[in-house]
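Q: My labmate handed me this sequence with no annotations at all. I'd like to see what the chain might look like in three dimensions before we decide whether it's worth expressing. Could you predict it?
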Amino acid sequence: MTAGPRAGSAAPAIARTALVLRHDSAIGLGNLGPVLEANGYEIVTVDTPTADVSGLDPLGADLVVVLGGDEAVYETDRYPYLADEVELLRERIAAEAPVFGVCLGAQLLAASLGGRAYRGERKEVGWLEVEPTEAGAASPLRHFAGVPTVQWHGDTFELPADSGVVRLASSPQYENQAFAKGHWLLAVQFHPEVDDVIHDEWLDAWGDELPEHGTSRDELRAGYAEHGRRAQEASALLFGEYLAGLDARATTAVAE
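A: Here is what I predict for the chain of 256 residues:
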């Protein structure tokens, strides 16, 4: 794939829509928003805890972005809208319609593909590195090689066998940190969306739990000061390259 437009570049003439499934107002698009806009996407955000997800057209948007949240995929009795999200994602997957998932979004995509999401042995929290696989090194995930990024999750997932899904990155604690299916589905367990505002809001909202996970607000602030800018650059490159791959796929389909 080729890299997407640089920040501030002219947007494509053709307007496209990105449907964003958000689970918490503090867990938003962050770094991903400007990249979408630079690539000509109109952003439509749906807050799934209060919206009628079952009423959404699964194929109505050019791209669906599924963000993170405190919910667990296996808690559909407590969060019934998650079951509706899985059904929406299954329809998009069947149509090979583009979708990008982050953290909970990655877990929902794994479940939609037939995998299992479950609670991990312990939370993975902090500024930590992921290691691209051989396939990941040839994908947008290569931009995070050697670049610490924010991890903040306690759940994980298994990738479904014989589904065409490819693992793109791992970490010492969790084998599945990123995966793809073709050029149209990409999911990451870590948080490339984190920017200044999101980082501060998360420390304010959930910083009290950090000592039980072996870190602290001060350590995460130091991590952001050291790695934040580089992680944001890697995020823009990863997401921009993914979007460019969607453009290339669409151009090929039209030519055929």
